[in-house]
User: What shape does this take?
Amino acid sequence: MSEKTPKLRAALDGIPTYKPGRPAPDGPAAYKLSSNENPYPPLPGVLETAVAAAGAFNRYPDLACTGLMAELAERFSVPLEHLATGTGSVGVAQQLVQATAGPGDEVIYAWRSFEAYPIVTQVSGATSVKVPLTSDEVHDLDAMLAAITDRTRLIFVCNPNNPTGTVVRRAELEAFLDRVPGDVLVVLDEAYREFIRDAEVPDGVDLYRDRPNVCVLRTFSKAYGLAGLRVGFAVAHEPVAAALRKTAVPFGVSQLAQEAAVASLRSEAALLERVDALVAERARVVDALAGQGWTVPESQANFVWLRLGDRTTDFAAACERAGVVVRPFAGEGVRVTIGESAAMDLFLQAAEEFRKAL
Assistant: This one.
């Protein structure tokens, strides 16, 4: 037997592994606040629609996602040709990098930001250019502009930013977009768009309309509560959207996911009610943490961020002992999803006790 092994791409050496949020420990009071999941069950009518669609999963799904695409085109008032779907916004993000960047090219993004960015960049063979957040945990758009070279192909702007929850507002974002070269694609990753309550944060779809180099990412995983079905989409001008359709995995979005997404879009009243409840809970948690003496960046997402440095893993362990699992980024901080009030009460108690012990 030959001792040789298959040759794999050197670009995969040392690639970071995506770390999902840990599941909750066993116990009567155990909550998972580590994955930014929606704590509510599917929206009214969605489960029934999905169950009905499941009866035909011996068949391939609609490759073109016809029903979902039509629904999205009407909802956002965009041409069908400006839409593309994928397996969650992270799947579409990977397609975007594949379509724009390869060996010798550069992809710019803030850091810390969504942990999939370095993964999808390295898989494509491109080079990551990480631009540190400001001291206020916000994208440093001036520094990102300064990082652009003739090798830059794509820039991610995560708004609100994961994991800090901070946002880039209209004036600064429009000024940034006006200065980015037209042949560089800017991706506005708006996975948490529905949770924004700051009127100064623009809707990326409005910005894309007269900017051919802007692409907007959205997902059904967060506010809509379809994380397990993996369906996201992009809004972009036709050349970019067409490239996304070329790089998509055939039949990647199941028929069950397509039908559930359409049903979710048609249940907007219930969606807004749930999102409002989560936003109110977010405000309660932030106020309580501030009262305990924590410094908490203003979050416009369904999570909050605590920068803890070398105390990060100790804090995460203390939360787990209290019955909640948070998402630690070793040496940096923890991200805590806004979940059920009972879960947040346990978290706040753990945070208060941890701070008193410092």
Observations:
- The mean pLDDT is 94.
- Residues 322 and 349 are 8 Å apart (CA to CA).
